[in-house]
Amino acid sequence: MSAPRVPPRPKPTTRLSRTGETLLTHARRAWPGIRREVLPALLVFWVNLVACGLVFAALEPDDDWFLGLYWSAVTGSTTGYGDVLPQSTAATVLTIYAIASSWLLNLVVATLLIKNVIPEPHLFTDAEQRHGQAHDAVQTAHARYQTAMLEQLCRHRTDTDPHTDPAYRQLQDAEERLHDAEAALHDEQQERGEARAPGAP
After folding, report:
1. What's the mean pLDDT in 38-55?
2. Quick check: 145 and 174 in contact, CB under 8 A?
3. How far, in Å, CA of 154 to CA of 90, rounded?
4. Exposed, middle or buried, 171 (CB in 10 Å: 0-12/13-18/19+)?
């Protein structure tokens, strides 16, 4: 009787590659919120800085518009080199406003960015976690089945049906769980309106 046929090993998918794919999917999912909320807040932040710089240049006759923008950037970022200082009372009040408004707008931008980039407590959804675990289980079961077949070959036991081996039944169960996990992941991606990866089952 011929030697038992070992099924082909499934294409290995490292956890790092799955993480990269999930991060890319997460970035696509977060981009609409970033474009809708974070970018407008950043625009308000920069418009406020430019306006403060131009007003500072108008209040300080010895400073031009470029120096005013430089003062606004240094003050708004709370770096505070101290090389450009307000000389009038109005410019001093403007400095206080620039610092306070920059702190507030920085807080708003950071809050909106965190809200849109981390909308969930976990990076992986439940379906993605189950799919990854099922894929790992198939690879483990396949390795065990190959080991069992090699042991039979080493013992010159070629007269037994490989399909009756417990390792083969474990491999079948793992492949069924992977199939169910892939279906659940596909349904979740359809609900989110995401296209399936090329070559996905």
Report:
1. 93
2. no
3. 92
4. buried
Chain mean pLDDT for the chain: 76
C-alpha span between 140 and 133 (Å, rounded): 11
76: nearest Cα among 124, 111, 31, 109: 109
What are the Cα distances from residue 188, in Å, to 29, 32, 46, 130, 182?
Answer: 13, 19, 39, 12, 10
Closest to 41 measured CA to CA, from 95, 102, 97:
102
pTM, whole model, 2 decimals? 0.49
Cα separations (Å) of 160 from 136, 163, 167? 28, 9, 14
pLDDT of residue 84: 85
